Amino acid sequence: MHCGGKTIHLQAGHYQAKIVTVGAGLAELTHRGRHIVIPHKPEEMPLAHLGKVLIPWPNRVVDGSYHYNGKDYQLAVNDSVSHTAIHGLLAWRDWQINQQSASEVSLTIFLPPSYGYPFALVSEVIYRLEATRGLQVFIHTQNVGDEIAPYGVGAHPYLTCNLQPIDDCELTLPVSEETCDERYFTTPQRIAQTAIDHTFRTMPPDAEWEVRMTSPSQNMSTFFTQPPALVASVYRRKISTARPGG
């Protein structure tokens, strides 16, 4: 046991993954030894919610306050820079291993009611490695309380082309409309010094979509696909050695 909880090693074909039980986090994913996501040491606390599962909300709640079903609620503000409640309540909780094999693991957790979120949930995350398809992630949540609960879920991978600086990488996003009413990266474009910290409407909203990053120098592409969802959030700090995140 360490600060990441327990480490689970998965393998299928040339794919390998390390999962940590704290936050049901993806600590490492490689193919033929090349990194697909930014890794972190399982025994260390990662920066920026790296690889964590975000429940019952991804992204940020401004001032930690929200209105739902005729009532006002106040969450703890845990991001002092933006003064928001960020990335849910389960990223730093230790999930329980439900089932495990050489290529798959199921993690579960109970989220009890709290003052800012008085709703009860049971969540399950399944990580499955396949030799031909890579990593698949399934997230299921059941409301076990008496009231309808506000709920959102997200994952937080930081894509990489084998840890190369991303300035010369090309990025493609499934963007239909961006909150700043700008449209870019709908076709492969060099990232360069572009700063990205936006939530996008996806295109089309009722079909599977894909985020892809390609490194010409590495002759390598990393990507993830998502079942139908209305929005996608993308983050990249404006420094030359920064890396993209989900």
From TrEMBL:
Protein origin, superkingdom: Bacteria
Swiss-Prot/TrEMBL GO biological process terms: carbohydrate metabolic process
Pfam families, per database record: Aldose_epim (PF01263)
Signal peptide limits: none
GO molecular function: carbohydrate binding; isomerase activity
Protein's UniProt name: Sugar-1-epimerase YihR
